[in-house]
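Pinned message: reference record for aspartate transaminase
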Amino acid sequence: MKISHRIANINGGGSDGWDVFLKARGMIAEGIAVTELTIGEHDIRTASPILQEMHRSAMAGHTGYAMVPGIDDLRDTVAARVQARTGVPTTRDNVIITPGGQAALFAAHSAACDPGETALYIDPYYATYPGTIRSVSAVPRSVPAHAENAFQPRAKDIAAAAEKGAVSLLVNSPNNPTGVVYNRETLDGIAQVCKAHDLWLISDEVYDSQVWEGEHISPRALPGMAERTLVVGSMSKSHAMTGSRCGWIVGPEEVIAHLVNLATNTTYGVPGYIQDAANFGLKQGAEVEAEVAEPFRRRREKAIDVLASQNTVTLVPAQGAMYLMLNIRATGLSGDDFANALLDAHHIAVMPGESFGQAAAGHVRVAMTIDDERFIAALKTLCAFAAELADK
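Predicted structure (C-alpha cells):
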C-alpha cells in the first residue's frame, strides 16, 4: 500500500538528527554506563505539589472530555501571565491549550501555511522544526544565523529568503540549541521583515523562564506585531512537566477560533486533570519557575569557569535555556565526528551541532541536565579530549 508523501517525507529523506542520541541509548540498553548530555530533560521531576493537584483533580472526576480550547481557568491564567510579562492585552480568547509545545508548533503552522507554501525558520534550529513544517505539507526554508554574529539572525538574511516567497517565519528565543537570547535590535529587524513581507511570525518561547543574561522580549509586544504573531508556550521547561504534555498558543482571537476547530478534529484537547495541575503550577508564580531554572543557571556559571581554564573549546554566549553550544572546530572534526568519538572514547553523549542545521557545524550542544559534580567532570573530560585531538 502507498504511504502519503506528506508522512514519508517528514524527515526530508535524511536523518532526523537524533543518531548520536539513539546510539547512546543503544549503549545504555547493552549495560554500558553513558553520561547523557543530549536532550532537554530536567534532572528533577515535576514538583510534588503539582502532582498532588493532578491526583486531586483526577480523583475528583476531571478525567472525562475537557473543553477543547482548554479549561477557562487555565486559559485565564496563561493570558494573565502573558499580559503581565509583555504588557499586551490578552484574554482567554487569545489562548488555546495544546498537548505540549510540539503540538502547538504543528497547529501554528497549520494556521499560517497552506500546502506547498514556504515557511522560514532560523538555522540553527530545534531538530523538529523542518519536520513540523513538512508535516503540514508546507516547504521548509532555513535562514542561517552565523556563529560570527553570535547566532543572532540578521534581518537582511531573513528578508532575502522572504523575497523568494514565504508566508511564515519561526523563531525561538531563548534559543535551543545555541543558548542565545535575541536582543532588541534582532527582534526589531525580524518585526520589520515580517511586516514588510506580510509574514506570520511563530515565536517559540518555551524557554522564557530561563534567561541568564539580557532580557526575554516577546515579539508579540513589538509595534504592529500582535495581529501577526503566534506565541508557543509550554509547561515542559518552566515547571519540569515534560511528560505531562501541556502547552499553548497565544494569538489573535480569529486564529484561535480556527485552531479550536483543528483541535476538535485532531487532538480533542488536553486531559482536564493535567490542565488543573498546570493551572496550579502557573499560579505559584515566577518564584517556582526560578527554582526550576536555578540548577541550569548554577551549572552555566561553573561551566564558564571550566571553559575559561583552557583554550581549545569556546563557548557561544550562553544567555538562556538549559544548553551550552561549544565550538570544537580547533579539533579539526565536525560536530558529528567529535560527538561520536567522544561517545566511543569516554561514553559521554552530546548532540552534534549538525543535528540542528549546517550553521552549527563544528559545534556540539551540551545539555546541563545532570547533577553538578558529574556535569563538571564530563565537561572537563570533553575539553581534555578536544585538546588531545587538536594537538594531533
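Pinned by admin. Summary line: Residues 120 and 169 are 5 Å apart (CA to CA).
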